Request: fold
Amino acid sequence: MKNIKISKKFLLVIGIIVFAVVLGILISTYAQQVEDRKKLEADLAEQQALAATLTANREDWEDKLTQAQSLLNTSRAKFPQSVDSIEYDDDLFEIADDCNLELTSISMCKPTSKKIGSVTYSISSCQLQVKGDVDSILDFLYALRTGDDFNLPWSAEVKVVKINSGVQALTTIALDIYAY
Reply:
């Protein structure tokens, strides 16, 4: 066998080529990593902006929920807890119809209790608005006062009557309904 002698120049060229290939691979890998890092940073910035927007939206919706719950609680407090008021409404609409009036609004307050002698009454205050001619309004007030047309065991005490006269008088009536 022959001894092959490799010259130093050949080894230097081979070394430079290997070094250049390794350096090229390292530069390519580094460039790819820099590109990936920039893309990840852009994605991260986008996600952080989205997270900030979602957090602001969440706080907004929580505020709206708090306001809605407060409004709901306020509205619930305005409505009477007694189911009897629905039955009063039916009677009041029937009386208004019998008197040829249009009952335009009813607002009921929360019922209270009042003891007279040995009997405890449930008292619901309400305000009515009726529309019609004055004679019909007077008939309606008479029917409320006498209680002849009531289907339930209740009576009404008329507290205030405000008549705005015209072709069709609009009348506001405040009354207390006593149930027993």
